[in-house]
Design a protein that fits this description.
It is built from 2 helices and 11 strands, in the order βββββββββββαα. By secondary structure, it is α+β, with helices and mostly antiparallel strands. Among the domains are: 155 residues, no CATH class; 31 residues, no CATH class. Strands 1, 6, 7, 9, 10 and 11 form a 6-stranded mixed beta sheet that branches. Strands 2, 3, 4, 5 and 8 form a 5-stranded antiparallel beta sheet that branches. Helix 1 runs antiparallel to helix 2. The longest helix has 77 residues. The chain is rod-shaped.
Length: 267
C-alpha cells in the first residue's frame, strides 16, 4: 500500500544542538546554526528535510573544499488519521546526509537529503497521517575530506597529499618534457635546414651543369651557323652571276639549301 503523507506544520524547523567542533590540521572547523526544515509533500518517497548551516574556519589554512557527513536524529510528533479518533504519538526518526560539499568555507544550504524511515507507521490501516512537527535531538558531523591550496586530506584513509610538492613535481616533469620537446624541435629544425641547404647545393650544381651544357650547345650551334654562313657565302659568290639553266644539279641543290636557311644571300 502506498501511504499518503500530509505535513501539518509547513516549514516546521528542527533546530540542532550546540556548535559542532571538528579538529583539523592543528585547528578546528566550527559548524554552527544548524537547522533542518521539513517541507510539505504528499509523496512518502519524496518527503525529505532541508538543512542549512554555517562553517567557520579556525585553522591556519584556507580550505577550498570540505566534505562533511551529517547524522541527524529527531523526535517527530505523528498524528495518524484514524476513525473515529486520531491517534497521536512521538517517533524517533533518523536522517543520514552522506556528504556535503562546502567550497571556500562559507555559509551553505543543502537541499533534499534522504529520510531513513517511514513517515507513517506500517500498521496504519488507513495509510494517512500528519507530521505535526519535529525537533532535532542529536546532530553529529564527520569530516570526510578537506582540500586547501597546499594540502589534500582524506580523513577516511588517512592519506595526506602535499599539493605544493605535487605541483612542483608536475611542473618539473612538464618542464623536462618541454625541454626534451624543444631539443627534438631544434634537432628537427636543424635537419630540415640541412635538407634545404642540400637541395639548394644540388640545385646549384644541376644549374651549373645545365649552364655548361647549354653554353656548349650554343657554341656548337654558333659554330655550325658560322660554317653554314661561310659555305652559303661561297655558294652565293659562285652562282650569283649564273643563269638558273646554267647551274649544275649540285649547285642548284646548294642554292635551295641556303635559301631555306635564309642565307641566300648571306645574312
Amino acid at each position: 500500500m502506498r501511504f499518503l503523507i500530509v505535513v501539518a506544520v509547513f516549514g516546521a524547523a528542527m533546530y540542532g544542538n550546540d556548535d559542532i567542533t571538528i579538529p583539523l590540521d592543528g585547528g578546528s572547523i566550527i559548524i554552527s546554526d544548524i537547522q533542518l526544515t521539513l517541507p510539505a509533500t504528499t509523496n512518502n518517497n519524496d518527503w525529505k528535510p532541508d538543512i542549512t548551516f554555517k562553517v567557520k574556519n579556525q585553522t591556519s589554512s584556507t580550505w577550498q573544499i570540505l566534505k562533511l557527513r551529517f547524522d541527524v536524529k529527531g523526535l517527530c510528533k505523528v498524528r495518524q488519521l484514524m476513525y473515529p479518533v486520531d491517534q497521536v504519538h512521538e517517533e524517533h526518526r533518523q536522517w543520514v546526509i552522506p556528504s556535503v560539499l562546502v567550497r571556500n568555507v562559507v555559509s551553505v544550504t543543502i537541499f533534499n537529503w534522504g529520510w531513513t524511515g517511514d513517515v507513517c507507521p506500517v500498521n496504519n490501516p488507513v495509510g494517512l497521517c500528519h507530521i505535526d512537527g519535529c525537533k532535532g535531538e542529536i546532530i553529529k558531523a564527520d569530516l570526510l575530506f578537506a582540500e586547501s591550496s597546499k594540502t589534500r586530506i582524506d580523513m577516511i584513509t588517512g592519506e595526506r597529499v602535499d599539493l605544493e610538492k605535487q605541483r612542483q613535481e608536475l611542473k618539473a616533469k612538464s618542464d623536462a618534457e618541454e625541454s626534451a620537446q624543444a631539443k627534438r624541435d631544434a634537432a628537427e629544425a636543424a635537419r630540415r635546414q640541412r635538407a634545404v641547404s642540400e637541395r639548394k647545393r644540388k640545385q646549384a650544381e644541376d644549374d651549373a651543369e645545365y649552364a655548361k651544357y647549354k653554353a656548349s650547345e650554343d657554341a656548337k650551334k654558333a659554330e655550325e651557323q658560322r660554317t653554314l654562313r661561310a659555305n652559303c657565302t661561297i655558294i652565293y659568290h659562285n652562282t650569283i652571276d649564273k643563269k638558273v639553266r646554267d647551274l649544275t644539279v649540285r649547285e642548284e641543290q646548294q642554292v635551295r639549301a641556303c635559301q631555306l636557311l635564309g642565307m641566300y644571300p648571306p645574312q
